[in-house]
């Protein structure tokens, strides 16, 4: 791992994230320790409602960050893939709807992961038919179409009511529905996905993907199959999103069309952009901010003398502020602040935003 | 026309056959055996007319979207919100003055003003940064949606149809023949037909403006090559503001139409944004005739799907989009 890191430092396109890993190791270690001993400090509400939720949302947002940050493809269909995986687990596994298939959890999860990668490949194959800003339109159309489909279709998706009564599995002798085990489960998946994305971003495939992001024509001229790399990126992202989606279904015990709605898709984009799409840790920071805001928005808004229902207004305005003032998200603010601290009058570092 | 037949003989034949079949389906009384398989003719005619008139509404929304995209490369994801805002203001105008026609003016002006503010205050500052502009429109759509929910609540509102447009009109289309030999004609809400005609008129007017006036010439040139247009000394920024105001204003007027046809409620903004997206993807980005074709196709697909296989209706719309992307990714009538 260390070898790969030091070697990749030479590659300019991946360099933006490495100083973070190398120079901030004390902070990273601190974060790791805090996150690991969290169950000892925090209440079970904070554990599951804020941190566990943030890990799951962050995992889904991470899949979007991977596509947007390394592939230059802003896909709004990641929630659709995650929700699809959740629906597969709900439909095939044990559920509270008459006529459930009742597959064992591991088989349902396996099926969900496989089918989600297929869906991811289909979404990718459609989205790469056009380029750049069109991607956002096509994936948004796919997301909205899937939402309306689940909402209207009772034969498979049980329509507007959705599917409930989905148990969190018990395996290795642990009831994973209990707050502390579930916290560690979400943490494990989040860290696994984070490591996978960090690794892939420095692997030959990830470097080729970043090359395609910056200059697809040159990469094509060099003999890389541009579209195959892009579709493969969608497949990899679909796998990550599916893991997040399965965890979300277990956490709620139910899934309904609201989980794949357009506003859910937009929320994940907001999380990824607010956190920062230049670094795999960004989505988790964004998700933590989102979870904290969503949980405490009511109290904060009322404290400011506003209507407590205006959470989405807060999210929208915060998102606008980030897009206006820091296109690379909270991570970018942090990096700029650190640069200013270190270099005094050095000009702020311009982070790559995909316009190569 | 002749050159098209010469170049694409097979396609011409297919189009001719489909046209004849459609004409027969619409005008001839259906034989009983045919009705047994495909359902009653009234169902089909209603679905087709609903689809075409809904297509008119979709055209009003999507043509502004496609113009803004074609000229400024700005995917305005707040377009649905502008539609809904126009609808709400139209409702307030009808409520205050009682005049349905006046509400169109109010909706147009409010939406156009919002468009001008957006273009001057926001998008001009980030020209050329397509992704950032799109993200900003997304943020604006979140904010607008919540503000409208705050102001107008979660109930659905319907704009009163004016008295002179209420009730059905009998169309010269036979739905069935009674045993006495007397033909039964289709009756259809007159307001939908009037609105469809109005959207056709607006579409033709837009086509004329785009193809016969100086401003239209500048806009078409801008869709093709914005940089070159700016280099030629055309007042590009002014044209941008005009197009954004007009596109937003159309969406606002469409809000009044939608509020009369159907209803206004939170969520309608997303529905019409989706419709605009699919219409523009199918028809071709930046093309007004493409928007017209796409709007009719999507409107028909939605209503025919709703009539014949309700729970899978959206799949039909989606399949059209997928097919177009697979065969002609730039859209059916796009030039590039």
Write the layout of secondary structure elements.
The complex is a heterodimer of chains A (356) and B (336).
Chain A: H1 2-8, H2 18-23, H3 25-41, H4 44-71, H5 78-92, H6 105-127, H7 134-152, E1 170-171, E2 174-175, H8 179-202, H9 204-214, H10 216-221, H11 226-252, H12 262-275, H13 282-303, H14 311-325, H15 329-343
Antiparallel strand pairs in A: 1-2
Chain B: H1 2-7, H2 9-27, H3 32-38, H4 41-72, H5 79-97, H6 100-122, H7 130-152, E1 168-177, E2 183-189, H8 190-212, H9 214-224, H10 226-231, H11 236-261, H12 268-283, H13 288-308, H14 313-327
Antiparallel strand pairs in B: 1-2
Helix pairs in contact in B: 4-8, 4-9, 4-11, 4-12, 4-13, 5-6, 5-7, 5-11, 5-12, 6-11, 8-9, 12-13, 12-14, 13-14
Description of the molecule:
The complex is a heterodimer of chains A (356) and B (336). Chain A is 70% helix and 1% strand. Chain A has helices at residues 2-8, 18-23, 25-41, 44-71, 78-92, 105-127, 134-152, 179-202, 204-214, 216-221, 226-252, 262-275, 282-303, 311-325, 329-343; strands at residues 170-171, 174-175. Chain A has 356 residues and is mainly alpha-helical. In chain A, a hairpin with a 2-residue loop joins β1 and β2 (174-175). Chain A has one domain (17-343): ABC transporter involved in vitamin B12 uptake, BtuC (Orthogonal Bundle). The model of chain A is unreliable at 1-15 and 348-356 (pLDDT under 50). In chain A, strands 1-2 form a two-stranded antiparallel sheet. With 336 residues, chain B is mostly helical. Chain B has one domain: Orthogonal Bundle (ABC transporter involved in vitamin B12 uptake, BtuC), CATH 1.10.3470. Chain B has 14 helices and two strands; from the N terminus they run αααααααββααααααα. Chain B has helices at 2-7, 9-27, 32-38, 41-72, 79-97, 100-122, 130-152, 190-212, 214-224, 226-231, 236-261, 268-283, 288-308, 313-327; strands at 168-177, 183-189. The longest helix of chain B is centred in the first third of the chain and has 32 residues, at 41-72. Chain B is globular, with a radius of gyration of 21 Å. At the A-B interface, α7, α12 and α14 of A face α7, α12 and α14 of B.
């Amino acid at each position: 791992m260390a070898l790969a890191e030091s070697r990749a430092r030479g590659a300019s396109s991946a360099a933006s994230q490495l100083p973070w890993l190398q120079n901030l190791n004390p902070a990273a270690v601190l974060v790791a320790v805090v996150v690991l001993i969290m169950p000892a400090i925090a209440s079970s509400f904070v554990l599951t409602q804020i941190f566990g939720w943030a890990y799951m949302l962050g995992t889904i947002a991470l899949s979007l960050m991977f596509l947007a940050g390394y592939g230059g493809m802003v896909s709004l269909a990641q929630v659709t893939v995650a929700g699809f995986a959740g629906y597969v687990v709900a439909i095939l596994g044990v559920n509270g709807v008459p006529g459930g298939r009742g597959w064992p959890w591991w088989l349902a999860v396996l099926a969900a992961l496989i089918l989600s990668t297929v869906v991811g490949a289909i979404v990718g194959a459609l989205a790469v038919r056009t380029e750049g800003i069109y991607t956002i339109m096509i994936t948004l159309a796919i997301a909205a179409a899937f939402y309306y489909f689940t909402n209207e279709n009772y034969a498979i998706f049980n329509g507007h009511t959705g599917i409930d009564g989905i148990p969190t599995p018990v395996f290795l002798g642990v009831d994973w529905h209990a707050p502390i085990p579930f916290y560690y489960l979400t943490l494990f998946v989040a860290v696994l996905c984070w490591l996978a994305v960090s690794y892939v971003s420095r692997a030959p495939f990830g470097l080729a993907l970043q090359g395609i992001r910056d200059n697809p024509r040159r990469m094509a001229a060099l003999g890389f199959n541009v579209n195959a790399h892009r579709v493969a990126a969608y497949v990899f992202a679909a796998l990550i999103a599916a893991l997040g989606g399965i965890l979300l279904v277990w956490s709620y015990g139910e899934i309904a069309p609201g989980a794949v709605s357009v506003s859910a898709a937009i929320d994940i984009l907001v999380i990824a952009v607010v956190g920062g799409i230049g670094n795999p840790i960004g989505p988790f920071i964004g998700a933590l901010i989102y979870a904290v805001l969503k949980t405490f928005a009511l109290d904060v808004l009322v404290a400011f003398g506003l209507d407590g229902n205006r959470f989405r207004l807060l999210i929208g305005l915060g998102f606008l502020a980030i897009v206006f003032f820091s296109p690379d998200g909270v991570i970018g603010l942090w990096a700029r602040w650190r640069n200013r601290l270190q270099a005094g009058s050095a000009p702020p570092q311009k982070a790559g935003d995909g316009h190569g | 026309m002749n050159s098209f037949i010469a170049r694409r003989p097979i396609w011409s034949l297919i189009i001719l056959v489909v046209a004849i079949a459609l004409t027969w389906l619409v005008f001839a009384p259906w034989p009983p055996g045919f009705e047994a398989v495909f359902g009653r003719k009234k169902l089909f005619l209603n679905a087709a007319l609903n689809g075409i008139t809904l297509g008119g509404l979709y055209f009003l929304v999507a043509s502004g979207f496609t113009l803004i995209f074609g000229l400024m490369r700005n995917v305005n994801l707040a377009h649905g919100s502008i539609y809904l805002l126009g609808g709400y203001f139209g409702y307030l105008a009808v409520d205050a003055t009682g005049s349905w026609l006046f509400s169109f003016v109010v909706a147009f002006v409010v939406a156009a003003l919002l468009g001008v503010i957006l273009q001057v205050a926001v998008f001009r500052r980030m020209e050329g940064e397509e992704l950032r502009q799109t993200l900003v429109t997304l943020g604006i759509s979140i904010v607008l949606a919540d503000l409208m929910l705050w102001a107008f609540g979660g109930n659905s509102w319907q704009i009163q149809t004016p008295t002179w447009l209420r009730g059905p009109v009998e169309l010269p289309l036979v739905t069935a023949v009674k045993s006495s030999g007397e033909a039964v004609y289709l009756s259809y809400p007159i307001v939908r037909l009037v609105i469809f005609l109005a959207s056709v008129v607006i579409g033709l007017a837009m086509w004329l403006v785009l193809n016969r006036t100086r401003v239209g010439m500048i806009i078409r040139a801008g869709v093709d090559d914005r940089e070159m247009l700016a280099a030629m000394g055309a007042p590009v920024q002014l044209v941008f503001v005009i197009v954004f105001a007009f596109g937003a204003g159309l969406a606002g007027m469409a809000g009044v139409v939608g509020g009369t046809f159907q209803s206004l409620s939170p969520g309608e903004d997303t529905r019409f944004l989706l419709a605009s997206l699919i219409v523009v993807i199918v028809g071709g980005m930046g093309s007004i005739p493409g928007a017209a074709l796409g709007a009719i196709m999507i409107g028909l697909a939605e209503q025919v799907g709703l009539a014949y296989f309700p729970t899978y209706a959206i799949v039909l719309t989606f399949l059209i989009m997928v097919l177009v992307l697979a065969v002609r990714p730039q859209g059916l009538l796009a030039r590039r």
